[in-house]
Write a structure and sequence with these properties.
single chain, 316 residues, alpha/beta, Quinone Oxidoreductase, Chain A, domain 1, Rossmann fold, 7-stranded mixed β-sheet, 10 helices, globular
């Protein structure tokens, strides 16, 4: 089969599409014929070598955290899935993979997939698997956003940001989005009540907020200062400076900066799928690339400034 792999750490041009052996599903695993995968922040930082302690120094390394496709086989003990079932899921983000979601086939444990959401294509589903799960965990499980609360989404035009805007709106929150001005119309259409241009708006001009969802990972202390009494903040934009700010914020109790490592299993994926099927969560896709052009997809991700996801299509 064909699989995109990282051949050394570095810029997007270290990616290659190679011929490799097709995996076979082991006990408890499902083999998925992949139709689409997307480019996530995790894929970019693994490729850049920022997670060497996890991914190691032996190449090649698989890429593609998420995938959507059709069950092509099952291992012993798998009872909930049959060949032909449409599914979506993720590979484990803290394990090393020789091949991953950006491949013609991927074998994963059955507890890492769920039925794909109804009414969307595999391209659309792939754009939401990780981002939708991350936004849902952030809002529901980390900061417990509630109806009527004032929510700020920073980096609102990205994959997680567009999902967070929609889910916060669905919860009945008042949603303020910070992004590029040119994305204001898109974000308003997704449920943002107001949109501020990050290039011309400082944190001091905003707030106060009950909830802040940050996807950028910079100026965290300044934004934390915009929390109302009892407010909560979570960031998914991790860096060395972000980790330092998170650690230093613990003295603020409930107004500390929270974070988490999204690692969605079947239950979370089912919940995200329900939001997609209900129409509360819609895909936002910026670009679609064939597997052979995955380098271009990573380059588009690295440039930033897009609204939504870069998706890679795969034809097994």
């Amino acid at each position: 089969m064909k699989a995109a792999q990282i051949t050394s750490y570095g810029a997007p041009d270290v990616l290659r599409v190679n011929e490799v052996a097709r995996p076979e599903p082991g006990a408890g695993e499902v083999l998925v014929a992949v139709e689409a995968s997307s480019v996530n922040g995790h894929d970019a930082i693994v490729r850049a070598g920022e997670l060497k302690l996890m991914s190691g120094r032996t190449f090649p390394i698989g890429t593609g955290l998420d995938f959507a496709g059709v069950v092509a086989g099952t291992g012993a003990g798998v009872e909930d899935y049959r060949v032909g079932h449409r599914v979506w899921g993720t590979v484990h983000p803290r394990q090393r993979h020789t091949t991953a979601g950006a491949a013609e086939y991927v074998a994963v444990l059955a507890d890492r997939i769920s039925p794909a959401p109804a009414g969307v294509t595999s391209v659309e589903a792939a754009s939401l698997a990780v981002t939708g799960a991350t936004a849902l965990i952030a809002l529901r499980d980390s900061v417990h956003a509630a109806k009527g609360e004032r929510v700020l989404v920073r980096g609102a035009a990205g994959g997680v940001g567009t999902a967070a805007v929609q889910l916060a709106h669905a919860l009945g929150c008042h949603v303020t989005a910070v992004a590029r001005d040119r994305h204001a119309q898109v974000l308003t259409g997704l449920g943002a009540d107001e949109v501020f241009d990050y290039g011309t708006t400082s944190s001091d001009q905003l707030g106060p907020f009950d909830v802040i969802v940050d996807t950028v990972g910079t100026e965290l202390n300044r934004y934390r200062g915009r929390l109302a009494k009892g407010g909560r903040m979570v960031t998914v934009g991790l860096s060395a400076s972000a980790l330092a700010a998170i650690a230093a914020s613990t003295v603020y109790g409930s107004r500390r900066i929270r974070t988490f490592s999204a690692n969605p299993g079947t239950a979370v994926l089912r919940d995200v799928a329900a939001h997609v099927t209900s129409g509360a969560l819609r895909p936002v896709v910026d670009g679609v690339y064939p597997l052979a052009e995955i380098t271009a997809a990573h380059e588009a991700f690295a440039r930033g400034g897009a609204a939504g996801k870069q998706v890679v299509t795969v034809a097994a």
